[in-house]
Each structure stands twice: as structure tokens, then as C-alpha cells.
Amino acid sequence: MPDHKTYIVEHLDPELGPWSELEYVAIARETHRTGGTFCLSSLPPGFRVPASLAAEPAFRAETRGVEEMYPDLSSGEVKGEEEEKGEEGKGGQAKVNPKSRVCLLDPQAERDLSPEDKGVFGVFLFGGILGDDPPRDRTSELRKKGFAGRRLGPVQMTTDTAVRVTRMVVEEQFTLNKIPYLDFPDLKFNEHESTQMPFRYVEGPDGKPIMPEGMVDLIKKDADKSIDDLF
Ligand code: SAM
To answer: Could you report the predicted ipTM of this complex, rounded to two decimals?
Structure first.
């Protein structure tokens, strides 16, 4: 299995809001560092990709859905599928069923992702859904397409965290239990204001949750706005 992995977020929300934009820019930047590709799939035709994201070299916008990109050709002949020769494979892999190379990161999957999955999958698929509390299991929209699934442990992560953790497992060969996590961290804005994030994050070298650039400011702005709305 080639080392350069493809990370796909299937766009499932009606729009791409500022939270998602920051998350996707973070994913694209981290993907670029390891020479992979980050693809936002199933975009409606004419969709305007935010300039910050379009400027990222690892980023690719795709109107096709993941099923069309990696079809199930197990019952028929596999012929020169575009992705077979794409970012990952160069020759000699034409017999692989495209669908079998895709792993859906699924909070309800029976098996957890492990470093050995590096050799099994080349494409990692995530739901383009903002986290919700309690989780509404919108990943089920992708589960029903029948891709192999892996869980990243029992706690809901933000999408960029889920991609980060997947990368740590398959590219850096961490086992899930060796990754330093911060669950439901409190973000302190000042002496009086803080908010608790209902997600799991990776702990950064500074002891804080790793978050996309600009996210703390955005969360603070949203928190101020909800307080203003009360008056
Ligand atoms: N509440 C959401 C739902 O309805 O499924 C979870 C959305 S989560 C913010 C976005 C994506 O990150 C999910 O679709 C999944 O691909 C991935 N993800 C997040 N936490 C995960 C976990 N613990 N195990 C596997 N995948 C996870």
C-alpha cells in the first residue's frame, strides 16, 4: 500500500460554515506536510470553495461522491479506474477493487483503527458533519454505503481531530491508546469566561488541545454572540 494517503471528507451539511472552513484548512495543511491529498467530496456543482481552502496545495474539491470515486467493482472487471493510477498508485495495482481501499472512520464501527491498517487502506473517509452533543449519528449516511469501518475509540472527536488521529495511527504508527488526548477541555477566554468543548482532542506539546488556527477566537465570538442574543 503506498505511503501517501488520501483523506476524504464527504460534504454532508447543507453549507460549509466558518467552523468547518477552519477545520478543513487545518486538515489540508497537515496533509500537505506528509505528502498526502485532502479531498472534499460531494460538493454541489457551482459550490464556492472558500479561498483559504482553495489556496492549500494538498486540497482537492470534488463534485463526485465517494461511491463514484471508489466504486465497487467486485462483481465486474476492474479497468483503469482513474484513482488507481492517481495520487497513490503507479502501475501494478489495476486489479484492486477501488471500494476495498476505502476505510470509513465510524464512531459505531466494531473494530478500532490500528497501525496495521496502513497496509490495508489507502483512503480514509470522514463525515463532513459538525460535532453535535449528544451525537446524532449522521455518520450513518456514509455507513449505509458499505465501506469497511474503523472506530477511533469511544469518544466523539471533531473532524480535524479524527483526521489527525487517523494520520497518527496509520502514518506515525501510534496505537490509539498511546495518543495523548484531552477530553471535554475547558477553553478559558479570560478570568470570568470559559466554555467546555464536548469533544475529544489531541493534546499538543503546550498541554492545550490541538485546534485549527483561529478556532479559539471563533468559539469566543460565537459564545459572546449567544450571550448578546439573551439581551
Ligand atoms: N456527531 C457526529 C455524527 O453524527 O456521526 C460525529 C461527527 S464527527 C464531528 C465528524 C466525523 O469524524 C465522523 O463522521 C467520523 O468520520 C469522524 N469521527 C469522529 N469521532 C470518531 C470516533 N470516535 N471514531 C471514528 N470516527 C470518528
So the answer is: 0.98
